[in-house]
Every structure is written in structure tokens, then in C-alpha cells.
């Protein structure tokens, strides 16, 4: 399977262009780091790749076809902010089991405590919520995972534990993985290829757009 972004351009309403003719592709079983300074459009591109927002021009293709607009999407995004990705009116067990029912091994490895399942999202910390958001996208229908700064809010031990489990599942199922991060060490440890968004973005050839690396 191949996930492709072809000539993607995007801006928010009438604001400045964020992405100009960005083209990239990720194959199944590939682990790709997407890096670039803050504000250069990594999260925006992630949302476009996952089909959450439509580009102004260009297309996202999965094996040459448009992403399905109904049912469980084969391209799943793990947000930086889990509270934005969940329904606050659902109990955690319903949020967790919406797309598939993760087994106990996964819940244990994620450090999800049984007592949390009956709680509402507002009764958990950001890091605890994020574990649910990760577990719920690891199901068999997911072919590509986009992890947008997904572990930033977790402590170092939990981060290591969650990445280890995620990589194991990604490899077992030959998923494609895109890791958006400012953490170069993480990108180098986890990824087989690193893509620099500013290098892909034709906008950066225009005068006036900031070129500074972090
Ligand atoms: N909903 C929105 N409406 C208007 N502008 C937005 C919106 N979301 C993001 N932007 C702007 O788009 C640009 C790219 O933002 P984006 O979040 O994609 O960058 P990023 O590279 O992921 O940044 P960071 O590394 O800080 O998360 C920024 O200038 C941001 O202010």
C-alpha cells in the first residue's frame, strides 16, 4: 500500500499560504519522520493526509484512490492534544472501543488502568487520555498511522514503553508510520527515513518566508 500526497497546497481561509505543492509518499512498513520548525505546517499536512481537511489543490491518494469518507479510515491521526480528538460526552470505554476492541495485552502495555474505563474524559490527565487515543487506532483496519507529537506530554518512561509497543504493532501489521516531531533523537531512533517539510514546501522558495531552522 502507498499513501501519497500530490502537489498539496493549503491556507486557512484567506490567510497566508502554509503549504505549496508539497509532494511525498510513504509505503507500507515504512517509518518516516516529518520534521521542520514550529509553524511550518507539519500538523496541517498531517490533517490533510488523514483526510480531516481538504487541500486547496492537490490530492491525497491511498493506492491511487481517494481516501474513503465513511467508515473507519485506514489512515489514522494521533493528535498532539488528545482532548481535541475525543467526544467529551462518552465514557472512556466507549471511546476506546469505537473502532475495535483492544486486547488486555495492549491495555496493559499502554498502562491503561481498568478503573479508568468507567471514567469521563474530564476525569483523566492529558497523558492518560493520550494512551486511549493511541490504543484505539492500533486496530487491524489501520494501514497508516500519523503520530503528531503524540508523546510530548508523557513522561520519559511511559514514552519509551508506548513507542516500543507501537513500533511492535506497526511492524507486525506492516503499517506505514509518519512521525511528526521536534525531537531529533526520537525521529532517528524510530524512523527509517526523515523528510524535512521546509525542503518539500515550494513556498520556501518565495522571498519573505522564514527560512530559519530551529
Ligand atoms: N485553524 C487555524 N486557523 C488559522 N491558522 C492556523 C490554524 N491552524 C494552524 N494555523 C497556522 O498555520 C501555520 C502552520 O501551523 P501548523 O500547526 O500546521 O504548524 P506545525 O509545523 O505543526 O507547528 P508546531 O511544530 O508548532 O506544532 C501556523 O502559522 C499556524 O499559526
From TrEMBL:
Top-rank taxon, per record: Bacteria
GO biological process: transmembrane transport
InterPro entries membership: AAA+_ATPase (IPR003593), ABC_transp_ATP-bind (IPR050319), ABC_transporter-like_ATP-bd (IPR003439), ABC_transporter-like_CS (IPR017871), P-loop_NTPase (IPR027417)
GO molecular function, one term: ATP binding
Residue ranges that the Swiss-Prot or TrEMBL entry lists as coiled coil: none
Keywords: ATP-binding, Nucleotide-binding, Transport
Matching Gene3D superfamilies: P-loop containing nucleotide triphosphate hydrolases (3.40.50.300)
Annotated ABC transporter domain residues: 3-214
Entry's family note: Belongs to the ABC transporter superfamily.
Identification of the protein by name: ABC transporter
The organism of origin for this protein: Acetonema longum DSM 6540
Amino acid at each position: 500500500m502507498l499513501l501519497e500526497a500530490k502537489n498539496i497546497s493549503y491556507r486557512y481561509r484567506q490567510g497566508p499560504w502554509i503549504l505549496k505543492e508539497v509532494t511525498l509518499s510513504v509505503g507500507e512498513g515504512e517509518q518516516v519522520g516529518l520534521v521542520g520548525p514550529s509553524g511550518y505546517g507539519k500538523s496541517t499536512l498531517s490533517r490533510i493526509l488523514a483526510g480531516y481537511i481538504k487541500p486547496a489543490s492537490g490530492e491525497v491518494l491511498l493506492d491511487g484512490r481517494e481516501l474513503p469518507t465513511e467508515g473507519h479510515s485506514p489512515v489514522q491521526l494521533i493528535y498532539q492534544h488528545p482532548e481535541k480528538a475525543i467526544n467529551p460526552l462518552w465514557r472512556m470505554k466507549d471511546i476506546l472501543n469505537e473502532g475495535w476492541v483492544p486486547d488486555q495485552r495492549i491495555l496493559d502495555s499502554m498502562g491503561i488502568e481498568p478503573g479508568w474505563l468507567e471514567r469521563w474524559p474530564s476525569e483523566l490527565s492529558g497523558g492518560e487520555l493520550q494512551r486511549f487515543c493511541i490504543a484505539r487506532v492500533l486496530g487491524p483496519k489501520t494501514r497508516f498511522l500519523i503520530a503528531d507529537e503524540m508523546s510530548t506530554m508523557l513522561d520519559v518512561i511511559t514514552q519509551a514503553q508506548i513507542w516500543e509497543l507501537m513500533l511492535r504493532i506497526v511492524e507486525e501489521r506492516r503499517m506505514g508510520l509518519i512521525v511528526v516531531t521536534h525531537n531529533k533523537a526520537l525521529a532517528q531512533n524510530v524512523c527509517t527515513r526523515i523528510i524535512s517539510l521546509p525542503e518539500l514546501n515550494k513556498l520556501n522558495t518565495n522571498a519573505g518566508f522564514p527560512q530559519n531552522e530551529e
